[in-house]
What we know:
Structural class of chain A: mainly alpha
Helix content of chain B: 25-40%
Number of helices of chain B: 10
Order of helices and strands of chain A: HHHHHHEEHHHHHHHH
GO molecular function (chain B): ATP binding; ATP hydrolysis activity; branched-chain amino acid transmembrane transporter activity
InterPro entries (chain B): AAA+_ATPase (IPR003593), ABC_transporter-like_ATP-bd (IPR003439), ABC_transporter-like_CS (IPR017871), BCAA_Transport_ATP-bd_LivF (IPR052156), P-loop_NTPase (IPR027417)
Order of helices and strands of chain B: EEEHEEHEHHHHEHEHEEHH
Oligomer: heterodimer
Function (chain B): Involved in beta-(1-->2)glucan export. Transmembrane domains (TMD) form a pore in the inner membrane and the ATP-binding domain (NBD) is responsible for energy generation.
Shape of chain B: globular
Shape of chain A: globular
Mean pLDDT of chain A: 90
Largest sheet of chain A: 2 strands, antiparallel
Radius of gyration of chain A: 20 Å
Number of strands of chain B: 10
Strand content of chain B: 25-35%
Pfam family, one (chain B): ABC_tran
Low-confidence stretches of chain B: 236-243
Organism (chain B): Bradyrhizobium zhengyangense
Amino acid sequence: MNTTIMLFLLQDGITNGAIYALLGLALVLVFAVTRVILIPQGEFVTYGALTYASLASGQMPGTAKLALAMGVTACAFDLFVARKALHGRLILRSVVANVVLPAIVLALTIYFAAQKPSVAVCIALSLVIVAMIGLYLYRIAFQPLAHTSVLVLLIASVGTHLALQGLGLLFFGAEGQRGPAVLSGAFTAGSLRFTGQSLTVYGITIAFIVGLWLFFGLTLYGKALRATAVNRLGARLAGIRTTLSGQIAFLLASVIGALSGIMIVPITTLYYDSGFLIGLKGFVAAIIGGLVSYPLTAAAALFVGIVEAFSSFYASNYKEVIVFMLLIPVLLLRSLAAPAVEEEKD
Amino acid sequence: MSALLSVTDAHVAYGKVEAVRSVSLEVGENEIVTIVGANGAGKTTLLSAIMGILPLKGRVAFAGRDLARLDIEDRVAMGLGLVPEHRELFVTMNVEDNLELGAFRIEKSRAKASIERIYTLFPRLKERRKQLAGTLSGGEQQMLAMGRALMGEPKLLMLDEPSLGLAPIIVADIFRIVTELKASGVSVLLVEQNAQAALKIADQAYVMELGEFVLSGKASDIAANERVAASYLGFQHEGASAI
């Protein structure tokens, strides 16, 4: 292998690794705050990517209707739970957030889909639609189970992944799609060629990581999320609602997923089930980070991306096997370094 | 005048085992009430149930409102605060962040003034404000836990074994602060194994044994009681009355 090929592979690995880093961070965030191992993170990627690609090609994405259907269900859940103490403000708030908002977004989607909207509109609509799906998914599938064990939450997570993947097939069909580049153009530096899209990936990843760092370090809501992750009972005693923390975590995770999808879909053809594998690679990074460490997860994600790029060059048939095999020594080392702990109860 | 906190015929169970049986108590405005009793008597269980951490059978009213349907966060918003035995601090966050989060439901401008008040009350916390909570000493952690609860501007602060495992000089400091809280208009429900210190500063007292209150009344009368003196204070009064 000469230096040029090595640099190419390194560049490719870093681009993919940047996406895995975002997904890994989202997984760590959701697990730390809600104890949910978010398997459907991959579906947020696919939904974001394919909603964006559908809109860009002038098609109406089914995800906008799904958001409304899930919103109506979430509203019904809210009203049922509060049935003995219903009051006007609560009903209004729930209806606006869960029914009116997705209905407006659906109307906008129908309107814009008919006239091949600009890239910016496609991105904005895709992000809003997937963000709503993420938020309602938490309300419907995970909030009612918030007090249960990690295992129950994992089973719910697998269930929602399967349901969303099936719905993905229904909405987008079995054919793969590609979307327009967010930023076109390219330039060369030495033997390396940088496309506008890969620069977008780097830029957005760095911006998101810095943004998350500022959010967690400086804002009260960011600190509340960290507090919930550190000590759930302590957070509740300080008046921080764990449901609010869960909602913020799912909102961030779904936006990160959708954004990752939008960044990948101009580079690779994505299918309704592609997100799962991409999400799993973020998961490998998150596991290397012990599902707690953000910097370790980001570094591990870059490593996963680079290993993947090199193994696709040397043994492309085994590239997934090699990536997932990374987990075995990590888990072995972790199990030797730290004894098994009982699950925390609160 | 109606009581600030009123618990009527409360039962708390862990599965089939009843840890608190038919307990009733009242805490008035501007009052320190203590519950003393041996380890395992059910004191912590009772406080946890009043806060909504454990399910309770019976009636709990705070500021005239039934708490049955309210969760922990709602109770905090109403002005009920708990400093639990294990403190439940955000150990990987610094002192200032812990305090700031205590005022999560309070207006930002008021929270800023509150933090200065807490620093006046606990000057040690000001010195350590950038230090991670997990690296503080036991006494400092107790001060931080109390400070965080006070940041929420509670009308009633429930303290669960605040002196546990602390050096006598720190314990004296904490009890001094509890009396200062009363002077500033905060009622306190104090659960303590250190009955002597608790009865000295309390207005009313309850003695708990095996999940039930066996004695209640003015703290000074309870302290003078022969059985209490023998069981919890470690000495016999001359001429103290029997229960």
